[in-house]
Design goal:
GO molecular function, one term: ATP binding
Pfam families: ABC_membrane, ABC_tran
CATH class of one domain: Alpha Beta
CATH topology of one domain: Rossmann fold
Number of helices: 41
Distance between the termini: 90 Å
Keywords: ATP-binding, Membrane, Nucleotide-binding, Repeat, Translocase, Transmembrane, Transmembrane helix, Transport
CATH architecture of one domain: 3-Layer(aba) Sandwich
Strand order of the largest sheet: 4-5-6-9-7-8
Family: Belongs to the ABC transporter superfamily. ABCC family. Conjugate transporter (TC 3.A.1.208) subfamily.
Number of strands: 23
Helix content: 55-70%
Largest sheet: 6 strands, mixed
Main location: membrane
CATH superfamily of one domain: P-loop containing nucleotide triphosphate hydrolases
């Protein structure tokens, strides 16, 4: 029987057909017992379980269901268009109905695809039930045999073996059913994850704003698991809503962690996360109390049925007597209902959660998609216009009036977005983007995109791993990599969305000449450049001037200037005199043209600061990298992120101790006492029944039936009360432990060093905060309830069997030892499989996260199939670990239930042997209870496995306690004056900085004094150490040697928050978080509304905010996407104005904003920070030159790509005057003086200005 089941389960799994299937599986278990399993030890996934096979069929069916839903909605909209105006209530009901319908459509689709296979399992369940109900009939025959002293002995043995056989067959078919359920559950999970991933690639902009990255990650982590549990086991909505909010916020925190650390805002966001968490746990507590009531009710249901049945039977007629046959056959039949009834609350709970998850998934999967027919693509034809927009109107959402009409692209397209999207891969893989490396072309692209100097700086050359979102690259480096990716594609049409704004002026000039310009590598391609700069416009063929979403002017540069319209006025407004113009003739072919679209207010993106300034490491040339062995070494040097690692071996006892310690002895002792009391009451009322059944019949009746019934009822009621007490106590204990573990995890992550976030993929962290915390919230307490309940029940059965037949101890003892051996043999393998499954889950979340953020680039490059294949492979890799895990559980359950069936056989045979001395009541009690052992062992296995597997979540959550932590945020007895710093003077004393041990120095021997109120510009090429200086001042990186002093106090001796909260940075990337506008300005609520409004006024935002319906409570979307780039940068300025600290650091804060916004920011900084020390890190020399009022120096000053010539004249300054410029190179200060003096010295600064065309 066991062999049949095992063969049936694994015949399609094992690789070697010649080997025995049992031997194959035993090898895996033995290997797992001897040494920790690795991913390569596992079987390949069966073809029918792979993502490609599952999703291929499902996608077609889901498309049909979606089409039906859209048809229904369009017919309703048509009715509304005929003049039927719907009330708000009706519209809300329609929205709810749509969400519900989409959920049911998803369920119907899943049922259609997986239902037939599921029904084969249901057939096994029906056969199992038939065997299950036949066992009490055989018990009745056995009890009849015990009572009949003249019955031949062989009948007793026959009944005993028949019970054993039926029990084994019941186990066999039960686990075949369970295997089918788990297989369907696994396939449903694969299917839903695949649908969500594919949807995220085609969802339109309006829908994307309502579905944050955190919510999408939650859909593929928590919701798919809920559906899976529903398939297996056949107040959730509120809890899921708060969990969504928490995961969404955590995703934003992880994305903007650098900004939180710069502003010392960790505590404010920690409190926000804990606020969501507290609401989530309160919802969980309410649902758990209701769940406990239902568990107590349903667990007591078997007693209530027996009490009602026996009570009615004996009370309606005195002649009705309860003998052993009536009592224990009835109890055996009632106990069949016990397992399903006790699981009914869990099934109801999982069903409710699954309904909520279905609705959430259906809602997401039915969101509006981009229409593929809006853009027509045709093969390349040199005689036809490359891009045609016919009556084109564009919008972000349905609500906005314009919408896309008709666009035609002729040939392949490459796209460089305003926000450089970088994958967590090597720099080379980011450029190749799935294409084969062609040496000479690759080298040419790298050189043209000005990446060769970066390759010399990066520790592993082009094999250096780039962190998520380009964490370890500067804004300019990210943009150049993004540009190189597009150029390498060799497309026919190039769309450039302002790629030059984030790079140095001389680098921008280089890129234009080598890539975009008339002599660049793309000279024979169609190029569309969106820009708010003006310097390159004379070299383009056609300029489209856009204002308020419309093309207002069109023509060449010379034509537009001659018309004296808006464009000409704009150029004059930002130019002081004429400049030399270079004009080029338009290409002969229409497709070979350069089109520039100038928009005076362009929305840009987030760009991360820093980490590109790593100290240079000596590396081999590009040609040398081709050597395979050397390439591996370079790849190892360049590795940044650490893959999620699986622990090995059995779960340590310390983990259980740690978990129970967080619950506390004050709760654990009552739990144990209540379980013991609950089982003692159960034992007492069952024993009381056996005494009642053995009561002699006098004159056809039994005496004192009222008393017997009363005692039976009291004991049963006491058991029910104890069950409620234990379930509530464990639920509360689980919530206490979960709250504590989540708090520890959050604190450990927020206190971690910045390098931790650069080397840890966000998927790993989101996995901990979503799936692992969800397991600690629900799975561990549920598993403990089940396990403890059944363990105590097993003790009760053993005591009863030993009371009836003490000789059974001879059999129970070896069976217990064998049970423990098989269990321990299995758990080692099971735990490692659980760890491998958890570890392989993190890359899925990371890939989802990355895809959602880069969906527009992936679509533009037509790389959807490749990314879908990657997603499929990651899901399949995860399922490869999951599949043997649940198969192993079934294997263990069959083995252990076989041992339980042996106990049934032993109890029955001993009863047959000792029928002369045993009463029918005690035999009925022993055998009916031994029949429960099979079910009890099955549930113990499931519960123990669940607890053991899910306690791994505690292990994975606790592992971040060991990461490198930052210095303390505050010191209790800090000597820091309350108004520090008063003057704002800064001193560097032989200061040195390293990014990581083993790398070269990023800053070397920096000694420098900056006086109070001094304005200092810091310049240098990429990798010179400019941004490293800012990191050092804010202690994002700690000093490797020397020190920094502010107002004479060594900053290393004060708390990080004490330092960071008293100095301010306006970063290059204007990061906003979801929440109110006021929260984004003042998360601690430390300022009055008047102060906030004053800051907004100074930041030129007062009119805009006053016009918003919710004013300061205006809800910002994730990343502040519902504000323009200029508005986001002004919000960052308002933050600085609100803090008004004595030291302000500007990290090229206006590099990518339009000229008008730049004007506003610079004028405010000049007036409001006049008495502050200002350090300006200039990635582009333009910024520093703008700050200067140069006297008696003939110099060209470039203002946002507009040339102004000054000769013995004071030019207008848009910011404060820098007293000094610091020129840095490879971590050293090479020059330091006023800009005019540095230019006159003809040193490095002069050469940089010369390269940039400024002198």
């Amino acid at each position: 029987m066991q062999r049949y089941l095992t063969i049936h389960l694994y015949n399609s799994v094992c690789a070697k057909k010649t080997s025995s299937v049992i031997v194959q599986y035993c090898r895996l278990v033995v290997k797992g017992y001897r040494s920790p399993l690795k991913a390569e030890d596992l079987w390949s996934l069966r073809e029918e379980d792979t993502s490609e096979r599952i999703i291929c069929d499902l996608e077609k069916e889901w498309a049909k269901q979606c089409a039906k839903l859209q048809q229904q909605e369009s017919s309703l909209n048509e009715a509304q268009g005929l003049g039927y105006k719907l009330s708000e209530q009706t519209q809300l009901l329609r929205k709810l109905h749509k969400e519900q319908s989409s959920g049911f459509c998803l369920l119907r689709t899943l049922a259609k695809n997986f239902g037939p296979y599921f029904l084969t399992g249901t057939l096994c369940l029906v056969i199992q039930d038939a065997f299950m109900f036949s066992i009490p009939q055989v018990l009745s025959l056995l009890l009849g045999f015990v009572r009949d002293e003249d019955a031949p002995l062989w009948k007793g043995y026959l009944f005993a073996f028949l019970m054993f056989l039926l029990s084994c067959l019941q186990s066999l078919f039960n686990h075949q059913y369970m295997y089918t359920c788990f297989t369907v559950g696994m396939r449903v999970k694969t299917a839903v994850m695949g649908l969500v991933y594919r949807k995220s690639l085609v969802i339109n902009s309006a829908a994307r704003r309502t579905c944050t990255v955190g919510e999408i990650v939650n859909l593929v982590s928590a919701d798919t698991q809920k559906l899976m549990d529903f398939v297996v086991y056949f107040n959730a909505e509120v809890q899921m809503k708060y969990m969504d909010g928490r995961i969404k916020l955590m995703n934003e925190i992880l994305s903007g962690i650098k900004i939180l650390k710069f502003y010392a805002w960790e505590n404010a966001f920690r409190e926000r996360v804990l606020g969501y968490r507290e609401k989530e746990l309160n919802a969980l507590k309410k649902s758990q109390i209701l769940y406990s009531i239902s568990i107590a009710s349903f667990n007591s249901s078997t007693f209530l049925i027996a009490f009602a049945m026996f009570g009615v039977y004996v009370l309606i007629d005195d002649k009705h007597v309860l003998d052993a046959q009536k009592v224990f056959v009835s109890m055996a039949l009632i106990n069949i209902l016990k397992a399903p009834l006790s699981q009914l609350p869990f099934a109801m709970s999982t069903t409710m959660q699954a309904v909520v998850s279905l609705k959430r998934l259906g809602k997401f999967l039915c969101q509006d998609e981009l229409k593929p027919d809006s853009v027509e693509r045709a093969p390349y034809n040199p005689d036809v216009d490359s891009v045609v927009i016919d009556d084109g109107t564009f919008s972000w959402s349905k609500d906005s009036t314009p919408c896309l009409r008709s666009t035609f692209f002729q040939g392949s397209v490459a796209y460089v977005p305003q926000q450089a999207w970088i994958q967590n891969a090597t720099l080379k893989d980011n450029i190749l983007f799935g294409r084969e490396r062609k040496g000479s072309w690759y080298q040419k692209v790298v050189e043209a995109c000005a990446l060769l100097p970066d390759l010399e700086i990066l520790p592993g050359g082009d094999l250096t791993e780039i962190g998520e979102k380009g964490l370890n690259l500067s804004g300019g480096q990210k943009q150049r990599v993004s540009l190189a990716r597009a150029v390498y594609k060799k497309a026919d049409i190039y769309l450039f969305d302002d790629p030059l704004s984030a790079v140095d002026a001389h680098v921008g000039q280089h890129i234009f000449e080598k890539v975009i310009g008339p002599n660049g590598v793309l000279k024979n391609k169609t190029r569309i450049l969106v820009t708010h700069g003006l310097s390159f416009l004379p070299q383009v063929d056609l300029i489209l001037v856009m204002e308020d979403g419309e093309i207002t002017e069109m023509g060449s540069y010379a034509e537009l200037l001659s018309r004296q319209n808006a464009f000409a006025n704009f150029v004059k407004a930002f130019s002081v005199s004429e400049r030399k113009e270079s004009t080029t003739h338009r290409g002969t072919r229409k497709s070979v043209s350069r089109l520039s679209m100038t928009d005076f207010s362009i929305d840009l993106s987030q760009e991360q600061l820093i980490s590109g300034d790593m100290g240079s490491a000596t590396i081999q040339t590009m040609e040398a990298i081709s050597d395979k062995e050397q390439e591996q070494d370079q790849e190892e040097i360049g590795r940044l992120t650490q893959a999620d690692k699986a622990h090995t071996g059995r779960v340590k006892l310390e983990l259980y101790v740690e978990y129970f310690r967080t619950i506390g002895l004050a709760l654990i002792i009552p739990i144990i006492f209540l379980y013991a009391f609950q089982q003692a009451a159960s034992l007492a009322y069952n024993y009381w029944l056996s005494l009642w059944a053995d009561e002699p019949v006098v004159n056809g009746t039994q005496v004192n039936t009222d008393l017997k019934l009363g005692v039976f009822g009291a004991l049963g009621f006491a058991q029910g009360t104890a069950i409620f007490g234990t379930t509530v106590a464990i639920s509360l204990g689980g919530i206490i432990a979960s709250r504590h573990l989540h708090l520890d995890l959050l604190n450990n992550v927020l206190h971690s060093h910045m390098s931790f976030f650069e080397s840890t993929p966000s998927g790993n962290l989101l996995n901990r905060f979503s799936k692992e915390i969800d397991a600690i919230d629900c799975m561990i307490p549920d598993g403990l309830k089940m396990m403890l309940g059944y363990v105590f029940k097993l003790l009760e059965v053993c005591i009863i069997v030993l009371m009836a037949t003490p000789f059974a101890g001879v059999i129970i003892l070896p069976l217990t030892l064998l049970y423990a051996f098989i269990q321990s043999f299995y758990v080692a393998t099971s735990c490692q499989l659980r760890r491998l499954e958890s570890v392989s889950r993190s890359p899925i979340y990371t890939h989802f996260n990355e895809t959602v953020q880069g969906a527009s680039v992936i679509r533009a490059f037509g790389e959807q199939p490749r990314f879908i294949l990657v997603a499929n492979s990651r899901v399949d890799h995860n399922q490869t670990s999951y599949f043997p895990r649940f198969v192993a559980t079934r294997w263990l359950a069959v083995n252990l239930e076989f041992l339980g069936n042996l106990l049934v056989l032993a109890a029955a045979i001993l009863s047959v042997i000792g029928r002369a001395t045993l009463s029918p009541g005690i035999v009925g009690l022993a055998v009916s209870h031994s029949l429960q052992v099979t079910g009890i062992l099955s549930w113990i296995v499931r519960a123990w496995t669940d607890v053991e597997n899910n306690i791994v979540s505690v292990e994975r959550v606790k592992e971040y306690a060991e990461t490198t932590k930052e210095a303390p945020w505050t010191f209790e007895d800090s000597p820091l004056p309350s108004h520090w710093p008063r003057s704002g003077s800064i001193g560097f004393q032989e200061y040195g900085l390293q990014y990581r041990r083993g790398l070269d120095w990023a800053l070397k021997e920096i000694s420098l004094s900056i006086n109070e109120r001094e304005k200092v510009g810091i310049v240098g090429r990429t990798g010179a150490g400019k941004s490293s200086l800012a990191l050092g001042i804010f202690r994002i990186l700690e000093a490797a040697k020397g020190k920094i002093s502010i107002d004479g106090i060594n900053i290393a001796e004060i708390g990080l928050h004490e330092l960071r909260s008293r100095i301010t940075i306006i970063p290059q990337d204007p990061v906003l978080f979801s929440g109110s506008l006021r929260m984004n300005l003042d998360p601690f609520d430390g300022y009055t509304d008047e102060e906030v409004w004053r800051a907004l006024e100074l930041a030129h935002l007062k009119n805009f905010v006053s016009g918003l319906p919710d004013k300061l409570n205006h809800e910002c979307s994730e990343g502040g996407e519902n504000l323009s780039l200029g508005q986001r940068q002004l919000v960052c300025l308002a933050r600085a104005l609100l803090r008004k600290t004595k030291i302000l650091v500007l990290d090229e804060a206006t590099a990518a904003v339009d000229l008008e916004t730049d004007n506003l920011i610079q004028s405010t900084i000049r007036t409001q920070f006049e008495d502050c020390t200002v350090l300006t890190i200039a990635h582009r020399l333009n910024t520093i030159m703008d700050y200067t009022r140069c006297k008696k120096v003939h110099i060209c000053i470039l203002k946002k790509n507009t040339i102004m010539i000054s000769d013995n004249v004071l030019t207008q300054s848009y910011s404060t005057v820098p007293n000094r410029v610091i020129v840095m190179d490879r971590g050293h200060i090479t020059e330091m003086d006023s800009p005019s003096n540095l230019i006159s010295q003809h040193g490095q600064f002069y050469r940089m200005c010369l390269e940039a065309g400024l002198v």
